[in-house]
Specification:
Elements (H helix, E strand, L loop, with lengths): L3 H5 L10 E5 L7 E9 L5 E8 L9 E7 L1 H4 L14 E4 L10 E4 L5 E8 L7 E8 L12 E4 L6 H21 L2 H17 L3 H5 L2 E3 L4 E3 L3 E8 L4 E7 L7 E2 L8 E8 L5 E7 L6 E7 L10 E6 L6 E4 L5 E5 L8 E7 L8 E7 L8 E9 L5 E8 L2 H7 L4 E7 L1 H8 L2
Antiparallel strand pairs: 1-25, 2-3, 3-4, 4-5, 6-7, 7-8, 8-9, 10-12, 11-12, 12-13, 13-14, 15-16, 16-17, 17-18, 19-20, 20-21, 21-22, 23-24, 24-25
Helix pairs in contact: 3-4
Length: about 425
């Protein structure tokens, strides 16, 4: 199947009036990945991502941003060059790779940026950093008023949770493993138990991916995960970053890159990328105490090929989930709708969908928001399919899809 952008924008055909696609910049040979999108108080759309000649293994990787001014959005339809500002630097630690940024705007109108700086070119060496800005709605990069390292010091409950939950979470897979796989799994589990007793490994290596969540207008929760432990953790502050505390770990079989939503009764729900064994499914966990403790991570019905996802609670109470709806590959990017606060997902519409194979594109790591006008914005890592590559040239970029709820409802009902 053809890429929507290649089929519509590049051929000069008009878009449907209720959905548009727009590349933030022309495809580049540099690795461009892990975007996050927010709406500013003045109506601008602000996006960030990381870009460089690799990921953790390249020291030139930095956090870039771009903005789409509200004045531009109220003009001609999106889908042509010149709508987004030129990229600008949001964060750059000289000589070290900066990756996986995420943003939020708090109730006081401040922009928060979180990202990990990679100390020795391994994900396990990630050092979590943050910046805060009140002056971020003018052209160019935000003016940062505060920045620093987010130091996490998980207590003895970290080791206790690993000892309590890790083996039982892996028990179903252990029971089905061959003798050779069982030996590997036992060695893997023994390593995680050992790491949980080493202070530096417990305190380092935590990385963000999805939007931070603001609970009750005052608690800021940054969902984190570790490639060293293959599970997740929440960084929590009740004084706007002056002090931080760590939740109990969200222990499971490869449940990483959590994204958060809150039900009407106050329950927090985390959805995870599945980095564990088959079946490849989105995983979920819940918290009833403000993110401090969590239920065991469990599979849901939706597939996941080991890639990032994002959840968004609409103002009408419905939930949207943006994810790769396959067990293998990132050639398909879907939006599913839930009317029961994430318990079931009744309808699905694709933003991108290619036939698997060498001609397919890659569409991954979505970041999703509902704007104040009710429309939905989704940014994601984009490498076009063969048709798009022939028209645009090979390379990577960040795509932004913008659609109305009516488009989503009409398309999902087909």
């Amino acid at each position: 199947m053809t890429c929507f952008l290649a089929a519509a924008m590049l051929a000069g055909a008009p878009f449907q009036s209720t959905i548009t696609y727009n590349l933030i910049f022309s495809p580049k040979a540099l690795h461009s990945h892990g975007s996050c999108i927010v709406q500013c108080p003045n109506g601008d759309i602000l996006a960030c991502w990381y870009q460089g000649s690799g990921e953790r293994n390249a020291d030139d990787v930095r956090i870039l941003g771009a903005r789409l001014p509200a004045a531009v959005r109220s003009g001609p339809p999106l889908g042509h060059e010149g709508t987004w500002s030129p990229p600008f630097v949001m964060a750059d630690t000289p000589g070290f790779p900066d990756c996986n940024p995420c943003m939020t705007v708090d109730p006081r109108g401040r922009l928060w940026l979180f990202w990990p700086t990679i100390l020795d070119n391994t994900w396990e060496s990630a050092l979590l950093q943050m910046k805060v800005s009140r002056n971020f709605q003018k052209p160019g990069a935000p003016v940062w008023e505060r920045e620093g390292v987010v130091l996490l010091k998980p207590g003895p409950e970290f080791q206790q949770a690993v000892d309590r939950d890790l083996d039982r979470q892996w028990a179903p897979f252990r029971a089905q493993a061959s003798p050779a796989d069982l030996a590997k799994l036992d060695a893997y589990l023994a390593q995680k138990h050992e790491q949980s007793r080493i202070k530096l490994k417990v305190r380092l290596g935590w990385m963000p991916r999805a939007h931070p969540y603001i609970m009750g207008g005052k608690r800021l929760i940054v969902p984190l995960y570790s490639d060293g432990f293959d599970f997740s953790l929440m960084a929590i502050t009740d004084d706007w970053g002056q002090t931080w505390k760590a939740s109990e770990p969200l222990v499971g079989p490869g449940n990483v890159q959590p994204t958060l939503a809150q039900r009407r009764d106050g329950t927090l729900v985390a959805f995870f990328r599945d980095n564990g064994p088959p079946p490849q499914r989105i995983m979920t966990s819940t918290s009833t105490d403000g993110g401090l403790t969590w239920s065991l991570a469990q599979d849901i019905d939706l597939p996941n090929p080991g890639s990032g996802l994002d959840v968004c609670v609409l103002r009408d109470g419905r939930w949207l989930l943006a994810y790769n709806d396959t067990e293998d590959g990132r050639h398909s990017l879907a939006i599913s709708i839930s009317t029961d606060e994430g318990r079931t997902w009744s309808r699905t519409r694709h933003l991108e969908h290619d036939t698997p194979g060498p001609d397919a594109g890659s569409y991954a790591y979505p970041s999703m928001i509902q704007a104040r006008d009710g429309s939905v914005w989704v940014s994601y890592s984009w490498t076009g399919n063969r048709e798009a590559r022939e028209r645009l040239g090979s390379g990577e970029s960040i795509m932004v899809a913008h659609f109305s709820l009516s488009w989503l409802e009409e398309a999902a009902a087909r």
